[in-house]
Structure formats: C-alpha cells, structure tokens
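Table S5 (text form). Sequence records supplied for joint modeling of the two-component complex.
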Amino acid sequence: MRRVLVTHIESPVGRRLAKALFHDPDVALVVGVGREAEPTFLAPYRGKIAYQRLDLAKARHLQSFLHSERFARARVDSVIHLPFAIEQPGERVPGGLPSLVSETRRLVEECVSRPAIERFVYLSSVFVYSAEPGNVNLVSENQLLGFDGEGDLDVRAWIDADLICQGELHGSALRTTILRAATIVTETGEFLNSPPLRPGPAPVGYDPMLSVVSERDVARALVLALHADRAGIYNIASHEIFPRSQLRESVRRLGPIALPTALGGAISLLEQALGRRAAHTTAFHRYGIVVNTRLAHDVLGFEPQYRIEVRGQGARRRIDAVRCR
Amino acid sequence: MSVDEVAAGGGPALGSDPFSQGDGTLPYLLRLRETSMRIVTEARTPPPRRASEAPQEAPDLGPPIPELPSFEDRDEAAGTLDRLTGLLLTRRDDDRLAQLFGRLEGRPYDEFGASPRVARRALAFFKLLYKYWFRVQSSGHAVIPEKEGAILAANHGGLLPFDASMVVADGILAGQPPRLVRTVVDRWAGSLPFVNVFYARVGQVIGSRENVRELLEAKQLVLIFPEGMAGIRKRAADRYVLQSFHLGFVEESLRHRVPIIPVAIVGADDQAPLLYDAQPLAKLLGLPFFPITPTFPLLGPLGLLPYPVRYEIAYGEPFRFHEEFPAETADDPHAVRYLAEQVRRRIQEMVDQRVMARRAKRA
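The corresponding structure-token record, covering 688 residues in total, follows.
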C-alpha cells in the first residue's frame, strides 16, 4: 500500500491524478500540495487525500513542511512530481517555469536524503527532445535532448529539471521514473505545455505534426509508473497525431501568424525588444515531434484509453477526447 | 385526342390512318408514364404495419468492421481539387488506396503524418505523369513481398526526385497487391518550407535511423537511394554510372532481418541532364548544389521541369543477407561495405542491360 505525496495537485493533471489515486486500492494515503487554497474538487476525497498549501519554489516552505509533524505522520513513501503541469491555459506562472528547476532539485535532494521515500515519479514533456528537420520526427526515449542555447526558456527549464531527475536513475536508492508526455489535451479541449501551440509568430511553410494525449491517460500513466517495478524514462502519447494548424483551429487561438522565414531574425529582435521570448526561431515551430510509446506499453503496460478527435471544420473545429478502448 | 381520352383507355381505332392523327405513340407513352408513376408511388409508401409486428432487435453480426478512410469526408469540404481528383482516378485506384490506408481505422494521419486525402490528390497528379509523361514500364513485381517488410535499393538520377515518385506510384498502381513505398528523404529536404509538409502527407519519411527502424518493424517497404545526393548531382557525362553507396541500408537490412531488393530506374538520368554544378553559387544560397542544365536557369523555374523521357523500372532478385549473416555483422564495417558493393554491382548490371537495349533499339 503506497502513501504518496503529489505536488501541484491543483493542476488539471493533478486533479485527474487525485481521482485515480483515490480509487486505487493499492494507495493508502495521498498528500497533495499546491500553491493555492484547498481546491474544492478535493472535498469528496478527504477521507484519503490530505491537502497542504505551500510554495515549493520557496526552500523555507518545503523545509518546514518536510520537518513537520503532519508529514511525519503521513509516512510518505512515494512522490509524484508534476512540475510543469501547473501552467493553465492562457495563464503564466508567476516567476516563470525556470523557478521550477530549483524546486525540482530541492525536492529530489530531500527525497534522496530520506530513505523512507522509495519512489519518485516525475512528469516531463516530449518537448525536451531535440527537434530535427522534418515534418515528423519519430523519437524514442534515447533521443538527444534539445540543448539549444537559443531555445524557449520554458523548454530549457524542462530539460534542466528532466536532467536533475535523470541523475537519480542509476546508482541511487530512489527508484525514479520519468514520464515524458506529449501535448496534453484537457477535458475542456485546451492544450497544456505545448510551445508550438502558444500564440505568436511562426515561419510560413511549416506545419509540424504533434503527438497528443488525454489528461486522463496521463493520470493513468502516472499511477502505472507509481506501481511499476522498473525505473526508467517512458514516452506517453495517444495513437493519434495532428498537424499544428488543426490543433490551433480547434482552440480558436490567434496565430501563429505565418511569416516568411527570411523575416525570422527581424521578428526575433522585435520580440526581444518587446520583452517577449524569441519563440519564432525555435525548432518546434518548424519541425514536429511524434513519440514512440512502445517502451511504456511493454514495461508499464500503458495503452491509451482515450482517442483524440478533431471534429468540425474552420471556426467550428473542436478537439475532443473520446473513450474508445 | 386529349389526354383524358387516352387515360380512359381510348386510342386510335385499328385500321385507321395513324399519320392523320398525329404521333400515334403518344397515347402509349402517356399510359406508360402513368403506370411507372403509380409503381414508384407504391414503392415509396411504407406498407401498413400489422399490430402483431413488434420492432425487433438488430441481429448480432459480430464486431464492427474497421472504419476505412472516407474520401468523401464531410469534415473536409470537397472542393474543386477533390472533384478533379475524382475524375482522374478510377474506382480501382480508390480501392487500392483504401487497402493501403485501411489500417488507420479512421485516423486522419498515420504515425508518419501521411494523410489518405492528400495522398489521393497526389496520386491523381502523379498518375498523369506515370502514364502520359514518363510512360513508365515496370517489371519484376513478383519479387516484392505481399505483406513483409523490405528495403528497395535504387539508383538515383535527375535533378528533382521524380524517380522516387514514379516508384511510389508504381507500387500503388501496378503492385500486386498494392504497397505504399516509403521513400527515405534527405534531411535537407525536411528543412524546406512546404516541401517538408508535402513529403510527410504523402507518406515519405526523413532519413533517420529511428524512422527506418520503425518502418521496417511495421513491415513496410522502404525505398532508399544509397547514392544519396551524389546521385542526382552527377553530370550528364556520368549518367547511369552509379556513385559510391552509403552503407546504412545494409546495416538496417541485417539488423531488422529484411531482404534488399535491387531496383533499376532507367530514364531519370535523362530527364534533366546536368552540365555543370555551380558550387560557389550553391554555397551562397545554402543549397547542396546549383545545377546548370540546357534549360535551367535559362527558362527560370520552368527549366527544372523534366523532359518527357520514357521510364523503365525493374525490380531484381532480392539479396537475403539476413539469411546468411547474423545481425552482429551490421557492426562490421568491412563486411557491410562488401555487401553494399554487391548490391551496387547488381543494380549497375541491371541499369546497363536496359540502357544498352534502349540504345540498340534507337540504332
């Protein structure tokens, strides 16, 4: 019976995960932490899920919680860390995602120093991979990460956090599992953590293919990783892939505004002058990433249960996750 | 005679002069129309349901049939292009495409970004080239496996890769059964705007080990041009002389235990004879080469159009290295080079035979 600490439980994925863990007979207790006041959706689960408000980005908050009587009583033996999934649609994280690198490092160090904590599951993103030329790039877990100095700041933060967790994969008593999720489709038809789908300019002539996955399937994969016997890195995605243009139409977001490639340098300068990140030049706007999920299927037994569909056309286009398997 | 009289059963009397009463067939035609109208009306009216007839449950016919791709999808507006495509393709062509993309089970794209709808449009265009521009003659389809994976190793030529498109069209139009040939495209092409999208939508893949491995494990046909870029930028004087081979295709064949089918393509080297490769200009423009041909750059972009040469595609007897050597041989560079050289020689022989036959015919 697992006793689990879940970070950022108030995020869309955290919400799904809370429900899945509540119904999991092999989980005895869940301690959810988040920046906000206790979310109302946790009310029906109070018998099994306790909530603690704290800011993981602040070392003092984390330290005081980990040394508290409450944490000692919980006897937590597993941690599920959702660092990036806190980004809500249309909302930016205060301080930006780079602050999550420090919280991930701190959390991993605390877990390593506590022998009682046996398992650590980290939800990463497929956008940590390096995007090579091509409309589709099928990538497996051993693909190089995108150490691009000029890349998106958020993506660089995900890569750093991913690397911190990778450091515990071998030679550590902490059994670490990293799940790299594709663009997450929420129940309301929004997307989480997908740099190519953010508003902004994009070069003309490119329409990269992207893997997608339902938030419910991500929650299922996290539960599978929690109970899995083998540590490792696994890609998580649905079987369906879509071009960026269709996904953008489905959420009716403005842009990306297609611009000739030759204007890329000028646009980047303009963006930097306006205090924005120079997203136009990042490879994700030109080259697609489609992930190979065979390892997750073979080792974790992960099989997506939700089929992602894009229905309608033009302004009526919408995305939906349909239970099919 | 009025219509009412005809309806009442009246008609011209027997023995009377039919020409004196206008068209004698009119009454019979009117009666025929009335009869047919009555039959149609009766057929449209549902018979009254008897009180004893209760609605019955649908019979259990087993699991539903996997959804085949619909080319008349309401989701995508059937524009002029689709109507034109419908005129160019026959029912048989559509059936063959449906066989190829049936495994998608309704998904709009496969894992490499191929779209059945775009592939259909492209096939309509390339079918015109296949039949009327290049007048392709192909032989040796029997060596192509019906379901298993294989590597097709072919010679490369011409400035634009029409040789690849003709092999793909041949696989769909003439294959027994139809097979979708996946061409491995140079990484440089993957960075070109619009081109990268088109290649992906018609099922072609960028040349990475991961892609090739995935295709072969999915038992697909993979077309590789082992000469690489050197094949299409060779000068007219060197046409039909195979350049040195890259070795990756032999390694993948050994690792994934699939045969290598040598393919000779004759005609591609004549479609746009290269007189000179202006390398300094190519470096300036960031291109792998800058061709000077009898028509390019003299006629602008039109000069890149291929000449209407006759194509010949021949599939040779497969090399089954995987039956003779273990998978570890892929790690031995000397052995791999030796095996690749065997394939190169075979393709060169096949090409030479056909070129000689052509020259003899012309003479």
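Note: Strands of chain B lie at 137-139, 150-154, 181-185, 205-206, 221-224, 260-266, 276-277, 291-292, 312-315.
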